[in-house]
Specification:
The protein is built from six helices and eleven strands. The strands form four sheets. Strands 3-4-7-10-9 form a five-stranded antiparallel β-sheet. The chain is about 30% helix and about 25% strand. The protein is an alpha+beta fold and about 210 residues long.
Amino acid sequence: FLLNGNLILLGIAERQRIGEGKLVTTEIFYRSNLSEHLISQAYKFLCSVVSAFSFSKGHVHCEALLVNSKDLFLVECTNRGGGVFTSSTINPYVSGLDVNSMYLQEKQCLKVDENVSAANPTQYVNVNNAALIFPTLGSPGQVLYRFDSEKIRNHPDILAVNLFQKVGRPLSIQSNGPSRHCAMVIKNSNPLEIENIVTTLISKFTLAQ
């Protein structure tokens, strides 16, 4: 996030993909136990991206390939927030900074907390664990009869949830982004614990037959 010309690193994530060509993202993890070397490497890389594209303020979303734990190669970047809860929910949670309010204040030429912009720019990265999960709700072709988003959202480990499919319609094959079944943001980055949480929620609050 660029605030008053200063780049603040909010989150570093790694993703898991499935499907032919590994094109479908199923899990994105934000882990708090990142090495100082990786954080420094990511920050320097992002600074070079910001400089190359002359970004000046607001959200910066960047995807890169880390090769042999050594070199970062840019895949894509944009001077806006990431999709599917990334800028609205995940970045504020993992960093502890209300960056969306900060951005609105800056856009309206209001005073923004100077202590944030003058602080160590990497001290906020992944201070909290989180994950963005795209779970399967049933087998392709099964009809989705129930998805209780309110009860799922009320679970203490859930930050956000969104259903991509339609209740009363057959579930699709998850072959690309739009065909995924749903998204959940979880206050956890441990795969086994996440699996237990998601399995419990799906068994209790969804039904596909």
